[in-house]
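ENTRY TYPE: protein
WANTED: fold as tokens:
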Amino acid sequence: MDTLTLAGLILALAATSFGARSSFILFLGRRAASPTVQRALRFVPPAVLTALVVPELVLAAGGPSLVGNARLAAGLVAAAVAWKTRNTLLTILVGMLCLHALRLLGYGA
């Protein structure tokens, strides 16, 4: 692929992405969302985060793994720390320390 084609492709993808993301602002920016829509939109970030994190914790070695899974165990410990302390940095540190400790002890992958 030559440089001009690559540059055109990048520009086209950027324009498409910008158009898709800004269309909601352009067409619906001046309208107030109903309380039902506002209430529903509050659940989007936790749902997206869950969809990204849970497969990484549960799936190991090509399939679901609930027993002997160091990532799942460390994730559960980190979730408990997050729930109890609401401290992001502490949650990350405890989760990573737990994961590395479990792996050093030979617990799961």
Observations:
- The chain has a mean pLDDT of 91.
